[in-house]
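Much of what follows relies on a compact textual record of a protein's fold. With that in mind, consider the following protein and its fold in token form.
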Amino acid sequence: MSGGWNTIESDAGVFTYLIEKLGVKDIQFEELTTLEVSELQALGTIYGVIFLFKYPSGEKRSDTPKDGTYDHEAANTLFFPAQTIQNACGTQAIVSLLLNREGEVEIGKELKEFKEFAGDFPPELRGETLSNSDLIRETHNSFARSSPFIDETTRAATEDDDVFHFIAYTSINNKLYELDGLQPAPILHGDCTPTDFPSKIIPVLQRRIARYPETEIRFNLMACVRDLRIRAREIGDEDGLELQEDKRARWLWENSLRRHNFVGFISELLKGVVKAKLDEGNGAYDKWIEEAKARTKKQREKT
């Protein structure tokens, strides 16, 4: 049996390098900060969006979705895997989006073979196959943040946990679909050509967010787009190209930091600080502790 799936962050750099590691070419993710059609249109060629939201605890599956309609026929004709394992929804949403846009997107040899193998399965078996794919799981886990304290694959969720969920929206066969592995089928939101996608998806997202209290702001939206460096080269935008290359370098650095556990480093650093104070002698260590206590007390009084 395959190992567990760790939690990954909703981060454009994580998602971009994750799909590159899976063999996808000339695609990247961009975080969106507004629900403006113009912001999406400014990104050029868009293949879909990944939406992260707090999953309502205790919500029961209904015969009809709160928005749109279930397309049960599409559950079998599209690549729609049911989600069968915890923590896999981020990568599952990405894979579902990309495999349904094959032909426009170069998904690479490994994902192409995976789609050919699992494509004719029913949604539940597709989900099991995805969850048990060593390649996809290991690639997913390689972008999980290192933690020495919690093993997300074994910790049971509690009622106090905030559970977040990823889903994908994309235009397939000139229809706007919501791909959510926790639902019984893709949700159809009407006609939508790839060109119309920016103007059609924004109202759908606005209606979804409106179902939450006004105080709930924990949403994240990322667009799956054609590599912005390609467009910059095509139009001779040297400043734009440099900006994108700098962004890639920053993402690479941030991803490398996610893989490291810094507890040992911090422990050694603190040992060195304490040793330095002890070496000073003459009560320097005791004075240092008292000064720290005084600063803490002063800070508490301010608050």
Summary: Confidence is low (pLDDT under 50) at residues 147-161. Strands lie at 27-32, 46-54, 69-70, 164-172, 175-179, 187-191, 220-226. Residues 238-258 form the longest helix (21 residues). The chain has two domains: 12-258, 263-302.
